[in-house]
Amino acid sequence: MGKDGKAGQTYRPDAIALRFAATSADVRSSMILVRKMLGVMELSQDDIGRVELVLAEALNNVVEHACVDRADHLVLLDLSHESGRLNCRICDPGNPMPGAQPPDGHKADPTAALDDLPEGGFGWMLIRELADVVKYQRVGDENHLFLSIPIASSVNGLGPHP
């Protein structure tokens, strides 16, 4: 009998919702939990790694730039798995994004001297390369970032989850 009480079936969540303080420590703890839950969703290690990289970059930007490491600001993270995609929504009460849109991100020039490289923007380049949908909206006093990441496979070899 499966975890849900039905013979031959097991419980596999298709959504995760977390709320945590906008601090580096809480982001790290939340990412550990998200990684475990993505495993329960039966995503492959490659997909889990991609999702983890995108979320870590986005959530660290929330902490470092929007909320400036404020424990009194709560971040909402919603993840849902549907039709071969992991949809992610991140909401926070921090400062709005400059220009009301996420940065494009910078590709590193491999020929540039180390001192000539820009200080930031590489995280947004990674986010945009790994998520094929990146949308930002300011709703009232909150930032809402929506990311959609293609999920190519599952550990059971059956391809994308329904």
Summarize the structure.
This protein has 162 residues and is an alpha+beta fold. The chain is built from 3 helices and 5 strands, in the order E-H-H-E-E-H-E-E. Helix 1 runs antiparallel to helix 2 and helix 2 packs across helix 3.
Polypeptide structure, described:
- The structure is a single chain.
- This protein is an alpha+beta fold.
- The protein is built from 3 helices and 5 strands, in the order βααββαββ.
- It has a 5-stranded antiparallel β-sheet.
- β2 and β3 form a beta hairpin.
- α1 packs antiparallel against α2 and α2 crosses α3.
- The C terminus is likely disordered.
Shape: globular
How would you name the CATH homologous superfamily? Histidine kinase-like ATPase, C-terminal domain
Helix content: 25-40%
Low-confidence stretches: 155-162
Give the number of DSSP strands.
5
Structural class: alpha+beta
CATH architecture: 2-Layer Sandwich
Distance between the termini: 21 Å
Question: Largest sheet, if any?
Answer: 5 strands, antiparallel
Radius of gyration: 17 Å
Number of domains: 1
CATH class category:
Alpha Beta
What is the H/E order?
EHHEEHEE
Strand order of the largest sheet: 1-2-3-5-4
Mean pLDDT: 84
- CATH fold-level topology: Heat Shock Protein 90
Number of helices: 3
**Approximately how much beta-strand content do the residues carry?**
25-35%
